[in-house]
């Protein structure tokens, strides 16, 4: 039976299940123009536990956490920390009271050392020298974070950077850590290592609020789960008695989708050809080298890799944001290597960027203007050489409807949408132009299980109609499920390939750390792998 209880809030500071309460949010309401982001929300986090917060896109999770982190003021409701009711005026206030936030997008300066990053802005605590170094080492040892104070951050892989972010908030005295989708960028082995770190934190009496759309992970790491839907608390669940399916049903009222694609639609018509592509950094060092592949009509080619191994540069080269130092790119038989981005777009290249804020949206512009972005000269946005705002607005309404973008209208700014809804808008815009080749970088990052299923369906449908797709995703289930062909990128080279029909996420994750090359064979008993730490330092 699913242990989901309609939530009711105990009085502030009351012990729940015999343990003291670290954070108590009671009756929180927050309104934005046209939207009630939080309506009478209750959240009670016990000390020494991992408390997951789940809910569909736009449910109100980030808003609630911004309130707890002092970034936004609630219109109604109270916040109690360790049983004491508080008013938080700013993040500095929240930090001073033991709340730490680890953002999904890391906020570290690459050219500084770990120590410099950690002490930045907190010099008053332990200075900037030996005392600070000792404190960092102490925290690292205590929670098994494996952080080395004198390493440059640019030398660290994604998982190690995340541990630095965690250490940074602990250094400032956090006793409750908010982790916003912390596993989105990690391979399976790194997820296991993170969860081990979280268990260490718990055992020392710290609390963690864990936001995620990955319900399997939520069930494996959380002690308690609060589900919010359309801005209000639906209830709490206990993982031992709840399945992912039940959780998904609570969140979005539907079953868990699967990315698996039964039938192959791969044709022998090449759409995109990349031959011996090489891209160099300013000093002449290769960022991409000897990249060769072909994607046919109806084929999804998945690129697996730990972030930072050349995926971003490969996408930049394909869309025309960076130009190759040597090698060629061919689109439908025509060489496009020197073409600018706009010309490639007009020839049918769709682009779902990995960084939706930098390359996907104009955050301060209304939704309908964002619908035009990247497609100014195409229908329905343009009539001859003129923009056609009316047609663009109408089409934006259609996309909002078809992709279930939760918004009070098309005149609100993109910044006011929740992260997942921003992503749905971009996917809708790109798919609407019926591209012949789609670059899909993390197409479902940050979207809930329902929207994920819808995006997978749109991609599958277009693939049946002949779309060629380059898929980059840190979600290995998605990558394996959607791809017809899989290649592994490591240090700027395609080092291995795998059959998505047989490979497991663990085997692929292991190859991504550079542990295997050539054709990856599925093994009944997975081989002994390198530890995540060892792999990741090399896999930059
Ligand atoms: N600054 C803002 N101005 C206007 N509306 C906002 C603002 N911030 C959030 N909203 C709206 O509040 C609602 C809740 O958004 P929130 O970002 O909290 O959702 P979420 O649960 O974190 O979603 P996701 O899983 O997509 O990140 C959404 O309808 C969103 O559009």
From TrEMBL:
Residues 512-540 are annotated as: Disordered. SMART domains: AAA (SM00382). It holds the Pfam family ABC_tran. It is found in: Cell membrane. GO terms for molecular function: ATP binding; ATP hydrolysis activity. Keywords: ATP-binding, Cell membrane, Membrane, Nucleotide-binding, Repeat, Translocase, Transport. Coiled coil: none annotated. Residues 519-540 have a biased composition (Basic and acidic residues). It comes from the Bacteria. Its main location: membrane. One of its GO terms (cellular component) is plasma membrane. It is a peripheral membrane protein. Gene3D superfamilies: P-loop containing nucleotide triphosphate hydrolases (3.40.50.300). Residues 23-255, 272-516 form the ABC transporter domain. The keyword tRNA processing does not apply. This is ABC transporter ATP-binding protein. It comes from Streptomyces chromofuscus. The lineage of its organism: Bacteria, Bacillati, Actinomycetota, Actinomycetes, Kitasatosporales.
């Amino acid at each position: 039976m699913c242990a989901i209880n309609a939530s009711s809030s105990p009085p502030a500071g009351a012990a729940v299940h015999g343990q003291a309460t670290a954070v108590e949010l009671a009756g929180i309401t927050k309104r934005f123009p046209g939207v009630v982001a939080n309506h009478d929300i209750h959240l009670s986090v016990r000390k020494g536990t991992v408390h997951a917060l789940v809910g569909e896109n736009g449910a109100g999770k980030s808003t609630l956490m911004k309130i707890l982190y002092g970034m936004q003021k609630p219109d109604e409701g109270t916040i109690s920390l360790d049983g004491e009711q508080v008013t938080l005026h700013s993040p500095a206030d929240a930090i001073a009271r033991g709340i730490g936030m680890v953002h999904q997008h890391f906020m570290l300066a690459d050219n500084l050392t770990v120590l410099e990053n950690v002490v930045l802005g907190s010099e008053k605590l332990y200075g900037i020298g030996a005392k600070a170094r000792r404190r960092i080492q102490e925290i690292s040892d205590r929670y098994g974070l494996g952080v080395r104070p004198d390493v440059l951050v640019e030398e660290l892989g994604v998982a190690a950077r995340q541990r630095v972010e965690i250490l940074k908030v602990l250094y400032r005295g956090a006793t409750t850590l908010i982790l916003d989708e912390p596993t989105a960028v990690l391979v399976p082995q790194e997820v296991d290592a993170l969860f081990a770190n979280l268990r260490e934190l718990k055992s020392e009496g710290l609390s963690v609020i864990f936001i995620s759309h990955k319900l399997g992970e939520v069930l494996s790491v959380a002690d308690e789960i609060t589900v919010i839907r359309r801005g209000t608390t639906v209830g709490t669940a206990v993982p031992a008695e709840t399945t992912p399916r039940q959780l998904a049903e609570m969140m979005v009222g539907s079953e868990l989708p699967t990315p698996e694609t039964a039938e192959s639609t791969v044709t022998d018509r090449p759409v995109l050809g990349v031959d011996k592509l090489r891209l160099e950094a300013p000093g002449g060092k290769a960022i991409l080298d000897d990249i060769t592949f072909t994607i046919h009509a109806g084929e999804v080619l998945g690129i697996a890799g730990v972030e930072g191994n050349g995926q971003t540069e490969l996408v930049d080269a394909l869309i025309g944001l960076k130009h190759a130092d040597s090698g060629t790119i061919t689109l439908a038989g025509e060489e496009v290597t020197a073409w600018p981005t706009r010309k490639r777009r007009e020839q049918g290249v769709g682009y779902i960027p990995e960084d939706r804020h930098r390359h996907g949206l104009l955050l301060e512009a209304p939704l309908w203007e964002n619908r035009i972005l990247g497609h100014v000269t195409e229908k329905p946005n343009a009539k001859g050489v003129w923009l056609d705002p009316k047609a663009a607005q109408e089409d934006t309404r259609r996309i909002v409807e078809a992709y279930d973008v939760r918004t009070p209208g098309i005149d609100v700014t993109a910044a006011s949408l929740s992260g997942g809804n921003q992503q749905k808008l971009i996917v809708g815009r790109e798919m609407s132009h019926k591209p012949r080749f789609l670059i899909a970088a993390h197409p479902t990052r940050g979207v809930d299980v329902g929207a994920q299923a819808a995006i997978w369906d749109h991609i599958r449908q277009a693939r049946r109609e002949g779309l060629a797709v380059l898929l980059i995703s840190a979600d290995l289930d998605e990558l394996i499920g959607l791809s017809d062909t899989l290649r592994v990128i490591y240090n700027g080279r395609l080092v291995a390939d795998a059959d998505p029909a047989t490979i497991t996420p663990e085997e692929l994750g292991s190859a991504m750390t550079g542990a295997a090359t050539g054709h990856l064979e599925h093994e009944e008993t997975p081989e002994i792998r390198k530890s995540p730490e060892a792999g990741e330092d090399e896999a930059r």
